[in-house]
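Summary for the steering committee. One of the milestones for this cycle was to obtain a three-dimensional model of the protein with iron/sulfur cluster bound, which we needed before selecting residues for the alanine scan. The sequence and ligand used are listed below.
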Amino acid sequence: MGDYKVPELTEFTEIPALQEGAMSHSHPYLAAPEHQEPLGFPGELVEDWHDRAIARFGELLDKSRALRVYLDSCVRCGACTDKCHYFLGTGDPKNMPVARQDLMRKVYRRHFTFAGKWLPWLVGAEDLTEEVLDDWYSYFHQCSQCRRCSVYCPYGIDTAELSMAARDIMDHIGKGQKYCNEIIGKVHTIGNNLGLPGPALADTLEGLEEDIEDETGVKVRLPLDEKGAEILLVTPSADFFAEPHVDGLMGYAKVFHQAGVSWTISSYASEAANFAMFIGSYEQMREIALRIRKAALDLGVKRLVFGECGHAWRVAYSFLNTLAGPWDFLDQKYPIPQHICEFTYDLIQKGALKFDKSANDDMTLTFHDSCNVARATRMGGVPGGQFEIPRAIARAVCNNFVDMAPDSIREGTYCCGGGGGLLTDDLMELRVKGAKPRMDALNQVVQTDGVTHMIAICAICKSQFSKVFPEYGMGMDRVVSLHQLVSNAIILDGQTTDEDDDETKAGAAPTETEE
Amino acid sequence: MAVLTAIFTVGFYAATAWLIYGLLRKIVQYWRTPAPLKIPTMPAPLTRGGVAMRLVREVVLFESLFKSNKWIWLFGWMFHAALLLAMLRHLRYFTEPVWSWVVLVQPFGTYAGFAMLAGLGALWLRRVLVERIRYISGPSDHLMLALLLGITASGLVMRYVARTDIVALKQFIIGLMRFDWQPMPTDPVLAVHLGLVIVLMTVFPFSKLLHAPGLFFSPTRNQVDSAREKRHLASWAAKLEARGE
Ligand code: SF4
Ligand code: SF4
């Protein structure tokens, strides 16, 4: 898979000429029986896969209005054709949202519409052949479900809904994706994506407490499974050890500390991520969400706060009430659930946090809106709070902040290239190429405004950029957590302020800069 | 003559019945199919009133398309607006006496045909010339444009080149509506015009023309951003819950 050319960055992301089949070789590893069966899916491709796929397709059509309406409504106006980062980065026409949809639509037409049954040639209807199934596996795993296309479609057609449904159908015939299904299995058995068991987690948190104390002289706690705490923090497990995620976690801890609230992490629900969304499985998604409900009940918490993660915030903000509600046992005075950014922002508004902004002076920052946060959730009380609140926090904790090109941020933000369950090494080429539009926009502000670092509030974005930046000749440590900046700048009560600490911290810790 | 009248009389009744049946069937199907999760494309309105406004903006101004691509927006909007005017103008053939506001629309309506022609032509050119759009276009997409262009062009011919017997046509149409059948004027252009309209009515409920009702049922556009405040639960999901716990 290693053989591909990293795209050259351009001032504006240009619309590429079509290169048919350019990415037809790209597909993720198949799930093995041990990844499939625990989720209730057949271990391998079943004999009567065609009939079972069509049957499952029919079930989904009855369950999801979006699927039905979107399969019927497309007029092939072409408005979405240049909106997908995977198309812009690869030139493969099947990565144009409408063409991706058509892979599914042609089967829908053949089996579920009058015109497709009688005049298939006229409406481009086609049966689900082995070839078509291969296309499905390939191209529905080249969609990060970022929903950028849905913003620009005159009918709001959301390709993510179709790619989720397609993955669900494939799971049901034994053609699942290893990366997602293996991870979902780990959450069911261990409680998080990484398979990090309780004792290891306790060790990690203890280590972080020591780090903070060494750095600030203040005893900031990162409690685990503490009954009766007010807040349950649910955060992506990458926050427990990956860079720069963990710096963000220390930031949350400092904010909680300074707010004087009691909080805890749960070892049972030690994962905010919910990869079941990526495979379009309501049942799996619900099962994972119910772990959070159980943890909240067992620990007797009053509030639920989520750490920095994109799709996790989508599941939390938009779906949690549906999947695992009603949350009548929590304190109704606060939003349920609440985003850590909302929490921090409220404190900043109240003047309850003190910052030394100069602690971040060695960086010039820009902000990457994570697709799920931007287009599938909200923060705060007004539409668009998901754009304003993180920026307001960034401006409160650092002096140098600029935005990237307007069409590449906010609701028009480009996906990092690794969302939607594609953050796996077997899709490296896709991830690198799919990052191009974001890299173009970033490179622009690097050139013109001297931007040195990009803030992300999503575990997947952070991991993806750490991996992809070096491919484009940028240091992997150039992506930072928002709460890492908060952590750098916050002045804790009783903190032994000393300059050296500020300096080592701000450079974003252990990894080297490669520029 | 009687044969022509008979064919078109039966044709119009059948097409109307089919159109109504087909559309209702689809609308009922959309209506009945639950949307299990909250998926509005954000930022989304926080109230039902806000959502209504969002939909109005989409229907009247093509808001999302405007954000997306100014050329497609221009031609698409031009075509649809002109189509609306032209259809309103045609009400004069269905009302006796003609409603006064329809009289007011008349002068605009007659020119609307040219705007339709221009819009459709430009959209078709894009379909052929822009590589990406050519790639996604199938036979039905071209045929749909041909059909609409055929209706528009034949209408314009009757208006500006070979005028048809409007009085007789109106009697034929009113006759259809009152079940008091009258002969249809024998005019080949008129026959083409009306024939294509019958085809359009027939294909409407099982073609991409379903985008018209579809927009109102699109969850990304018609849902309120209220997931945290109000629990949203589909009927099948409620059953799943009842079984599970
Ligand atoms: S923008 Fe919407 S209607 Fe237009 S081609 Fe894309 S999916 Fe179809
Ligand atoms: S959801 Fe995102 S990744 Fe998928 S087709 Fe649309 S723009 Fe591309």
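Key point for the committee: The mean pLDDT of chain A is 94.
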